[in-house]
Amino acid sequence: MSCFILLCVQRVWCKECETSHALLPSLLVPYSQIPLKDQQEILACSNIGQIPESVMERNFLVDENHIKYILRQFKKHWKERLATLQLSLLDHLTVPCLDFYSMQFMQIRGTPNKLYTQTNMP
Q1: What local confidence, expressed as pLDDT, does residue 25 receive?
Q2: What local confidence, expressed as pLDDT, does residue 56 receive?
Q3: What share of residues in the chain are helix, strand, coil (percent, to 5)?
Q4: Domain locations along the chain
Q5: Residues in CB range of 115: below 8 A, 6 or more apart
Q6: CA-to-CA distance for 105 and 92, rounded, in angstroms?
Q7: How crowded is residue 106: how many other Cβ atoms within 10 Å of its Cβ?
Q8: d(CA 64, CA 30)
Q9: Is the alpha carbon torsion for 110, 29, 74, 66 positive or negative?
Q10: How far is CA 69 from the centre of its chain?
């Protein structure tokens, strides 16, 4: 069952670089409406020659055109990068992709990102 979730994006101001930055959960791909988990499942299914019907059933935003787009973007932008890092689609890809490319896995726009971990505030 699919549903919409209202997501309020927290923005912060950096005094050092004097720009604002959005804080996004790692389960999102910047500039995409399809969550990282769904994109990885689409790619994994395609790798073994299956149609990712479970993704289309679970997420009504995903149709055959989105699947084609995701597969095309993966081949164009991310297939070589994963091979370079010796990672597979089954690995946890957020941290290595942010560390080496400053982008979330499957992020296409080249806006640099950083991974921030939650710290305890006094």
Answers
A1: 87
A2: 87
A3: 40, 10, 50
A4: 28-117
A5: 26, 94, 95, 98, 99
A6: 10
A7: 21
A8: 21
A9: negative
A10: 14
- Please give the average pLDDT of every successive group of 10 residues along the chain, which has 122 residues: 72 88 87 90 91 84 92 96 93 92 91 72 50
9-26 per-position pLDDT tens digit: 888 898 988 988 888 888
Structure tokens at 4: 């919409």
b/e sequence 33-72, b meaning 16+ C-beta within 10 Å: ebbbebbbbbbebbeeeeebeebbeebeebeeebbeebbe
With residue 22 as reference, give the H or E element that holds it: strand 19-23
47 closest CA partner among 108, 76, 89: 89
Question: What's the confidence (pLDDT) of residue 118?
Answer: 63
